[in-house]
Design a protein that fits this description.
The complex is a heteropentamer of chains A (335), B (374), C (260), D (447) and E (277).
Chain A: H1 3-39, H2 46-67, H3 77-106, H4 110-132, E1 145-147, H5 149-156, E2 164-165, H6 166-188, H7 190-200, H8 202-207, H9 212-237, H10 242-247, H11 249-259, H12 264-281, H13 286-292, H14 310-324
Antiparallel strand pairs in A: 1-2
Chain C: E1 2-11, E2 14-24, E3 29-33, H1 40-47, E4 55-60, E5 63-64, H2 70-75, E6 78-80, H3 93-98, H4 109-114, H5 116-136, H6 152-163, E7 170-174, H7 182-199, E8 202-206, H8 210-216, E9 220-224, E10 227-232, H9 234-239, H10 241-248
Parallel strand pairs in C: 3-8, 3-9, 6-7, 7-8
Antiparallel strand pairs in C: 1-2, 1-4, 4-5, 9-10
Chain D: H1 14-31, H2 41-68, H3 75-90, H4 97-125, H5 130-159, H6 178-198, H7 203-223, H8 225-228, E1 234-235, H9 244-248, H10 251-259, H11 264-295, H12 298-308, H13 310-315, H14 320-346, E2 348-349, H15 356-370, H16 375-404, H17 411-418, H18 423-438
Antiparallel strand pairs in D: 1-2
Classes of the chains: A mainly alpha (335), B alpha/beta (374), C alpha/beta (260), D mainly alpha (447), E alpha/beta (277).
Bound molecules: adenosine-5'-triphosphate (2 copies) and magnesium ion (MG) (2 copies).
Residues 40-41, 83 of chain C line the site of one magnesium ion.
Family (chain E): Belongs to the ABC transporter superfamily.
Domain ABC transporter (chain E): 46-277
Keywords (chain E): Amino-acid transport, ATP-binding, Nucleotide-binding, Transport
């Protein structure tokens, strides 16, 4: 029995990738959930907002790289991030002004806002492509690994290697920081409470002297920041390609719903549930079983289901979880 | 007289990043012909683009319908993905008797489809490449591989034919599983591949799609160090993406001896685009074939020139490389025979698809090196 | 008619209903009063099948109905109104009434295609009945108004009207009086009395307006902190020291400042 | 409450005028040839036919959303499931496919379903406690292994049967129109299963369940080769209408065409499309008739009541969960039917094509733009949006051509012209936003 | 439960996954304030004079309706359901577009101000429905009442808790979980937190038990006598009339009777038709 190797294999192929992916989903879901919670609609344009923010950040990163500015072991993109956030914030504020505000004033049925966000999604989709094209772009630099497989093996002498990428670590750390900050902001600061109050009862918020437009602006700015951060981290870890940012919308929504829409903690939990169930259920346990029970030679891969069903699996798990825990992982704002 | 040629590719949708370089390739062939002024006494060719979306059969059909019935194109370079190609072929092209030459639809279904002699393709059949790839892998002394394929007819067909050939020749495929393009994350796929093990990973995907994603994740987790790349993966992008990380990996893509593809790459560079993108060369060939067939038939009527496509593509005749379209037209106008080889080694076999010669490449020192042809 | 046996309903650690036992006699108009948060609405919701009880039983006519869903209770003749009116806002007042009766032929989708004639006849009958009810409630001028446009009191009347579309056995009324003009409340009280006398409905009424309770109810049950505190005639209850202390109070303390 | 505000009476002419305008668009597309329109009846009718199929899909979604407020984000799955029907019903049987493992596959599926049924029964019947959990888990695990034990070899055998051309079970060789009903039944069955689990619980379960079922169905179609060849696609699905080639070779038809001043090729295309159009129109009109009959009767009143206020409807004796299940199943059946019709028209089953953007979101856009809750609105929205979606391919780049005309030649202009394909998205987005802006409750709002 | 049903009362989209069902407002929060003008000589502290107007583009609800309250006094509005009492309150608070008439506060004409700015100008309002933040705790609800204040609010908070001990017990609980009467208490508490210059209450005692109602009236009297004018709508007309310095009977959006509470109680016809006595 070789527990160490089994553990390392598990960490390397299941735990670390799933955790990083989960954090990426969580950051995306956080933005979706925030808009949902405060502006009361599901924003389908979020994926493309992420893409736009990332595209701007990439352009700035290239500029910085050309100037020879770098952050040492960390990716230069982190330096460009504030610019990306600012540009994205401007864009979403402009969108709000041009599109959503009208329906807010009209008090149109919320589904109209959802559909308007689909329209905005199409627009941003095209805009990003006009801006940076449809190709894959890479902009990661700095140290790629905190620890890589070869070094790890040399260091420990184990048969299995362990890799931890800078971007993975960065994603996890930032995700935790951002969630903490958002939580603190919403529950402890006056502006945060104003946002929650607005979300609960718009008229009464107004009657308490809260300026609704300010709340809306703040929400969009935070959402833009979340989207850009999520998009850039995802792009750093994988690669940037506008089309993928649309595709990631689906797991993001799944994560947000599972965690309980409108609940920041839920978004985090949802992200990890989706990520871990995708990786763990479809993981062939053959190798790990081989370490744990050296004598056993099964002929299959000990894989519960093929990876082609990974997304389906995560949905089934979600539904089962919800069936047995009907309030959701965290109580979301729903009927 | 102006002749219109349709280019129906997925400019939006899952393979949107491949489409522009393909369209550029096709247009380059037309430009070359126009510049020569030799096609049917100086007839010029105009390209009309249509967006087939790759994924949506209905939209593709509508696009091709427009190209044919409204724009009046005399032939079509396209479609891009097999499903969409079949739909537009069956419902529109056949009904209107228009020739379609697809640069990238590789489904075996297209081999057997009732096409009235209207459909051709310049990409090699999956079966042939699978065989070639199996040979190459075995010759490298690798007996056990894992296979991942992009979950469409191209990937699936290639992976299956490779597995069949490889196992027949004594190799062992530890796992043969799909990855979907455009997904957010490939950790699960790579974890499964790694668990199954193998000395190398065969990636039957697209370089600017999930294929790269899988390779990335496999490298990062140290799951595989050697990769085998078929045509969808061989391009400059793979070098740009992975540099010397894929040291020792190898692959193959269709190209004939005689530097057809090298020439093409150079021409593309001069025209300002990346000719090494997947199926860009094949698109150039598709357009060239249509035009040469027209010249040979001395007619732009598809019902007439469709019978000439095989003639100009195959022996006997003078071998035609990329950039030599003017020469080919001269020969044809002079009553001679040509054998179009082009950038992707076009050699059409019944019922109108390329048999394909492949060049073998390997990745060393962060560069792609051509090792040989087979 | 209704017997509640040692009913508990807890929210987390909080015992909203904490071992309440009571009976509602057939043919009575039973009042249910108690301080805010005493658990009256919660008790209602448990009886009406909206909330599942933590423990305890509800028995109707000797039959255990604990935890049955509301729509089944409806068919057993148990109806309820809501503390905040639950009208079907986008439907007309008449439609609000016509949708009430169960087992309509036209509510089966199959029949809407193949039983047009029968549906027509049933509809005519329903329309007649609805108009009758509207007359009874003196709101027939609102027949074609959208229910969402009614004022608060009119909505309450409509709620009451719905219970008259079918032969209810027992009707639970949750604060019909809150926010209703006192003159109109008189009309409602009359309507309730008539239903009770003429149609033999049993009522259970939650209300904070003691005039209303006094005029209508016998007996009156007082709840406090999830338990039954007292039961008796309205007059007795209003003299009960405990009830006065917990619920009724002794009137304005600052009377001297009034009109100063 | 102010959402009623814009419900102010609409002219009764509104719908007819809009439909006339839409018809005019198609006539223009068929007759006028300029940079906006193609001037080809073939194109025009092709767009119309797909628009009609979209209309039927939208009708199904509208039943679920407009009548009952059920949010189905798995439209793509039900469409795809419906699309399976033509393959299984109309394709000729595959030689050797059935004998290779057909019965075993069916048996294993029965075992799988039986296991689930047994597990649910156990869960219901047994008292709470650890024993119940153990028993149910045991049954599930055992069932899973028996199922896989039967299923895997059967599938391997079937897929090994001439994989390049077949490798699947094949169909029954029955008339393809029959598959439209079967497609509806498939989707209905799936909807019933989903609804049983997710309806009546917290409402966002339905969203996630439908999102999931959509993904699952498409994944199954992609990966279960024995069923419909997976990503290798099934082609040449029989048609219910004549083939153009046959018409072109039919002298009577050629003569007929020339009499009308069309070339045989053109006329054959038009004729085939008119045939399809008639079939689709009949289905659409029958569905609308049934839907309107139901909607304008006590059933419809009950549905509106439930949508208005579930709590009150429940208290008024309406079984909300059962009604929701009913409309959900009916709506899904209609969607499934549309899916089968679409595959019939395409003549091709290509599961890779089922992506949610096109088959879920776009359908939703159609329903909302048309006016949710209104059947005619859905039809109008569907045909219009589909028309625009197709025309955006041309209009988008045209737009950018106009916009960039004043720019000086150079890198920027070239870049923009090069990326003009993406104007398709921008144009679509603009159209959507404009419609929503000027008719937020839809073009033909619910009365 | 009820708050959500209300907000979504009229459409099928009750599905929480698409849209958050919490209260969408009815007020246009984007409206900008106009400028204020001078008041008129001899004005009461707050007066809505000759107001006419309705909701959106609908018909007029108010017809030449006048409501006023003096410093240190209590003014009560009564009338049948649907008479326009709440509408009049909203009109005074700027939540309605007035077609005619003006609103003046403390010697200034504030007709053009938007509701937010009226809050800042010192007006406090408890609406009839939707008057709490359901998912925020009781304490947070009260804090939101003090949103525009920058001073220490702890003392006021304690005062409110003293006034409503039942609510004090539940200060960490979400307000949406409270019983009907408890919510009402939170709502009034919220308005008191504002420390307004004038307090407007729409049926503050609906659904509260008699003992709490008495407490509440006591408190209102105390507040008024402390100099803070109170304008309220009441259906518990008899008690309300006892404490009213000025009472208005509204019928169909117009002033039908005006007088002191005692005068109106003495008027038989008024008592029978409107006060239910
Ligand atoms: N969902 C819930 N979660 C937690 N506590 C709750 C919930 N619903 C009610 N409660 C608590 O249960 C108690 C009883 O509430 P209930 O609504 O039954 O009171 P009530 O007697 O109807 O009062 P009122 O006369 O004010 O309407 C209250 O203290 C309330 O705070
Ligand atoms: N948001 C609104 N839009 C349109 N009409 C409204 C709106 N709110 C109220 N109304 C109408 O205005 C009239 C007056 O309503 P209001 O709420 O002012 O009555 P009220 O006197 O407060 O009645 P109650 O005692 O029942 O609260 C009613 O006819 C009502 O239907
Ligand atoms: Mg209550
Ligand atoms: Mg009112």
């Amino acid at each position: 029995m070789d527990i160490l190797n089994a553990l390392v294999a598990f960490l390397n192929f299941v735990f670390i990738p799933a955790a990083a992916y989960g954090a990426q989903l969580a950051l995306g879901a956080l933005g979706v959930t925030l808009i949902y919670g405060i502006l009361r609609f599901s924003n389908f344009a979020h994926g493309d907002t992420m893409a736009f923010g990332t595209a701007i950040t990439i352009l700035v990163t290239w500029g910085l790289q050309a100037l020879g500015i770098s952050l040492g072991p960390l990716p230069t993109a982190l330096l460009a991030l504030p610019v990306g956030i600012a540009a994205t914030a401007l864009l979403v504020l402009a969108t709000d002004r041009a599109v959503y505000r009208f329906y807010r004033v009209q008090k149109a049925a919320p589904i109209i806002l959802v559909m308007a966000s689909v329209g905005v999604m199409f627009l941003m989709n095209g805009l990003t492509r006009l801006l940076i094209g449809v190709d894959e772009q890479r902009f990661a630099d700095g140290e790629r690994f905190v620890i890589n497989v070869r070094d790890f093996k040399a260091m420990t002498g184990l048969a299995e290697g362990l890799a931890l990428k800078t971007t993975q670590l960065l994603t996890l750390v930032i995700a935790i920081l951002v969630v903490w900050a958002l939580f603190w902001f919403l529950n402890r600061t006056k502006s945060g409470k104003a946002m929650r109050a607005y979300s609960d009862n718009e008229d009464l918020a107004l009657l308490s002297g809260i300026d609704p437009e300010k709340v809306v602006r703040l929400t969009w700015i935070i959402a833009a920041a979340l989207a850009t951060i999520a998009g850039v981290l995802y792009g750093l870890d994988k690669a940037f390609k506008p089309f993928n940012y649309f595709q990631i919308l689906l797991p993001i929504f799944a994560a947000a719903i599972v965690g309980g829409l409108g609940n920041p903690l839920g978004a985090i939990a949802g992200g990890f549930v989706v990520a871990f169930s995708e990786v763990a259920i479809t993981y062939p346990w053959l190798k790990i079983a081989g370490y744990l029970f050296p004598g056993w030679q099964p002929d299959g891969l000990l894989q519960l289901l093929g990876t082609e069903y990974k997304f389906a699996v995560s949905f089934v798990i979600l539904i089962v979880v919800l069936l047995f825990k009907p309030t959701g992982l965290f109580r979301g704002k729903s009927v | 007289e102006d002749i219109k040629l349709g280019i129906s590719l997925g400019f939006t949708g899952p393979l949107e990043s491949m489409a522009p370089a393909m369209a550029k390739g096709a247009e380059m062939a037309m430009q070359e012909v126009n510049d020569s002024g030799l096609l049917m006494d100086g007839t010029t060719v105009v390209a009309v683009q249509g967006d087939s979306t790759c994924a949506d059969a209905a939209a593709a059909t509508a696009t091709v319908e427009r190209l044919i019935t409204a724009e009046g194109v005399k032939g079509i370079v396209g479609g891009m993905c097999s499903g969409e190609t079949i739909a537009s072929l069956e419902n529109v092209a056949k009904a209107n008797g228009i020739v379609m030459i697809s640069p990238s639809a590789t489904s075996p279904a297209l081999t057997t489809i009732e096409d009235n002699g209207l459909f051709f393709r310049t990409s090699p059949s999956d079966a042939r490449q699978g065989e070639v790839m199996a040979d190459i892998v075995l010759e490298k002394g690798i007996n056990s591989v894992a296979v991942t394929y992009t979950n469409n007819d191209y990937g699936k067909g290639l992976a299956d034919s490779f597995q069949a050939a490889f196992e027949e020749k004594g190799g062992n495929v530890t796992v043969n599983s799909a990855h979907d393009d455009g997904k957010a994350d490939y950790s699960a796929e790579v974890a499964a591949l790694a668990a199954a093990g193998g000395d190398a990973l065969v990636v039957a995907g697209y370089v600017d799609q999930g294929g790269s994603g899988v390779v990335r994740a496999a490298l990062d987790t140290g799951a595989f160090e050697t990769f085998v790349f078929p045509d969808g993966m061989v391009g400059n992008a793979v070098v740009e993406n992975f540099g010397d990380e894929i040291e020792g990996s190898f692959g193959q893509n269709p190209a004939a001896e005689g530097e057809g593809r090298e020439t093409y790459l150079k021409m593309a560079e001069e025209a300002g685009f990346d000719g090494s993108g997947a199926f860009s060369a094949e698109a150039y060939d598709a357009a060239a074939l249509i035009l040469l067939a027209m010249a040979a038939a001395d007619s732009s009527d598809p019902a007439v020139y469709k019978d000439k496509v095989m003639d100009v593509a195959n022996e006997p005749g003078e071998k035609i490389m990329p950039g030599q379209l003017a020469k080919a037209l001269e020969i044809i106008n002079g009553g001679g025979d040509v054998d179009y080889v082009g950038a992707a080694a076009v050699e059409l076999v019944e019922p109108g698809e390329t048999a394909g010669t492949f060049r073998e490449v390997s990745f060393e020192g962060g560069e792609m090196k051509v090792i040989g042809y087979r | 008619m209704i017997k509640v046996e040692d009913l508990h309903r807890h929210f987390g650690g909080f015992r909203a209903v904490d071992g309440a036992s009571l009976t509602i006699e057939t043919g009575s108009i039973t009042g249910l009063i108690g301080p805010n948060g005493a658990g009256k609405s919660t008790l209602f919701n448990v009886i009406a099948g909206v909330l599942p009880p933590t423990s305890g039983r509800v028995i109707m006519d000797g039959q255990d109905i604990t935890g049955l869903p509301p729509h089944q209770l409806f068919h057993k003749g148990l109806l309820r109104t809501f503390q905040l009116a639950h009208e079907f806002a986008s439907m007309t007042v008449r439609e609000n009434l016509m949708m009430v009766p169960g087992q309509q032929t036209g509510e089966t989708i199959w029949n809407t295609w193949f039983q047009r004639g029968r549906i027509e006849r049933e509809e005519a009958e329903l329309r007649r009945k609805a108009d009758e009810v509207l007359d009874f409630l003196t709101i027939s001028h609102l027949t074609h108004e959208k229910a969402g446009n009614l004022s608060g009191g009119q909505k309450k009347l409509l709620e009451l009207g719905r219970t008259m579309m079918v032969d209810a056995k027992i009707v639970f009324l949750d604060e019909v009086g809150a926010g209703v003009n006192r003159t109109l409340l008189g009309t409602i009280a009359d309507a309730i009395l008539r239903l009770n006398r003429e149609r033999g409905y049993t009522f259970c009424v939650i209300e904070h307006d003691m005039d209303f309770i006094g005029k209508l109810c016998d007996p009156v049950i007082v709840m406090a902190e999830g338990k039954v505190l007292a039961k008796g005639s309205a007059a007795d209850i209003m003299q009960n020291e405990e009830v006065i202390e917990a619920y009724l109070g002794t009137g304005l303390k600052n009377k001297d400042m009034v009109g100063a | 409450m102010s959402t009623n505000r814009q419900a102010t009476a609409h002219s009764p002419w509104r719908a007819p005028i809009l439909f006339a305008a839409l018809a005019l668009l198609f006539v223009l597309e068929g007759t006028v040839r300029n940079s906006m329109f193609s001037g080809s009846w073939n194109t025009s009718l092709a767009i119309l036919n797909m628009g009609l199929i979209s209309a039927i899909t939208a009708l199904g979604v509208n039943m679920q959303w407009g009548y009952a407020g059920l949010f189905n984000v798995g439209v793509v799955g039900f469409l795809a499931l419906g699309g399976l029907a033509p393959v299984l019903v109309a394709m000729p049987p595959v030689e050797g496919g059935w004998s290779a493992g057909g019965p075993r596959v069916l048996l294993s599926l029965a075992v799988g379903l039986g296991t689930l049924a047994l597990a649910t029964q156990l869960w219901r019947r047994m008292g709470k406690g650890r024993l119940r959990g153990l028993a149910v888990t045991g049954v599930l695990i055992l069932g899973f292994f028996v199922y896989r034990g039967l299923f895997d070899p059967a599938v391997t055998a079937i897929e090994a049967n001439n994989p390049a051309r077949h490798g699947n079970l094949g169909g029954l060789g029955m008339p393809v129109m029959l598959s439209w009903v079967v497609g509806g039944a498939f989707a209905a069955a799936a909807a019933w299963a989903v609804g049983k689990v997710a309806l009546g619980l917290r409402s966002d379960y339905l969203a996630i369940a439908t999102l999931g079922i959509g993904e699952i169905i498409v994944a199954v179609l992609k990966n279960e080769d024995w069923l419909a060849r997976g990503v290798k696609n099934v082609v040449s699905i029989p048609r219910p209408v004549p083939y153009e080639i046959d018409l072109q070779q039919n002298p009577a038809f050629v003569e007929f065409a020339t009499r009308w001043g069309f070339s045989a090729t053109e006329a054959s295309g038009i004729w085939v499309k008119i045939c399809y159009m008639s079939l689709f129109l009949v289905v659409l009109l029958v569905l609308i008739l049934l839907a309107e009959l139901a909607l304008k009767s006590p059933w419809g009143r009950m549905m509106r009541a439930i949508r208005d206020n579930e709590t009150a409807a429940e208290a008024m004796g309406k079984n909300v969960t059962a009604r929701h299940l009913q409309v959900f199943v009916l709506g899904s059946a209609v969607i499934g039917m549309a899916g089968a019709m679409m595959i019939t028209q395409d003549g091709l089953m290509a599961p890779v094509g089922y992506n949610p953007l096109r088959y879920t979101f776009l359908i939703w856009v159609m329903v909302i733009v048309g006016g949710s809750g209104n059947n005619w609105g859905s039809v109008l929205g569907a045909v219009l949006i589909w028309f625009l979606w197709i025309k955006a391919e041309v209009w988008g780049p045209a737009l950018i051509g106009v916009l960039t005309a004043p720019l000086p030649d150079g890198g920027l202009k070239e870049h923009l012209l090069d990326s003009s394909a993406h104007m398709r998205f921008i144009a679509m987005g603009l159209v959507l936003l404009l419609v929503l802006r000027f008719a937020p409750r839809g073009l033909v709002p619910e009365k | 439960m009820s708050d959500q049903d209300q907000a979504f009362g009229n459409r099928g989209n009750r599905d929480a996954s698409v849209v958050n069902p919490h209260g969408r407002g009815t007020i246009d929060g984007t409206r900008r304030s106009g400028s204020t003008g001078p008041g008129r000589a001899g004005d009461p502290f707050l007066i809505g004079e000759a107001m006419s107007g309705g909701y959106g583009r609908g018909p007029d609800i108010l017809h030449d309706c006048t409501i006023a309250v003096e410093k240190g006094q209590i003014a009560v509005i009564v009338g049948p359901n649907g008479a326009g009492k709440s509408t009049a309150m909203k009109a005074i608070f700027g939540m309605l577009n007035l077609r005619q008439g003006s609103v003046r506060l403390n010697g200034r004409d504030i007709t053009a101000l938007n509701p937010q700015d009226r809050v800042k100008a010192g007006m406090g309002f408890v609406p009839q429905v939707h008057n709490i933040f359901p998912s925020m705790t009781v304490e947070e609800n009260l804090e939101m009442g003090a949103f525009i204040r920058n001073d220490d609010i702890r003392q006021t908070l304690e005062q409110v808790y003293d006034l409503f001990p039942a609510v004090a017990e539940k200060r960490r609980q979400a307000a949406g979980e409270l019983s009907g009467g408890q919510r009402q208490q939170v709502a009034v508490g919220r308005a008191l937190m504002t420390r307004p210059q004038v307090l407007m209450l729409d049926e503050p005692t609906a659904g509260v038990s008699p003992i709490v109602m008495d407490e509440l009236f006591d408190r209102i009297i105390a507040i008024a006598r402390g100099g803070l004018p109170v304008l309220m709508v009441e259906q518990n007309a008899q008690q309300a009339m006892m404490i009213a310095d000025k009472a208005y009977v509204l019928v169909q959006g117009a002033n039908a009777h005006t007088g002191t509470g005692k005068e109106l109680m003495a008027n038989d016809e008024v008592r029978r038709t409107f006060l239910g006595g």
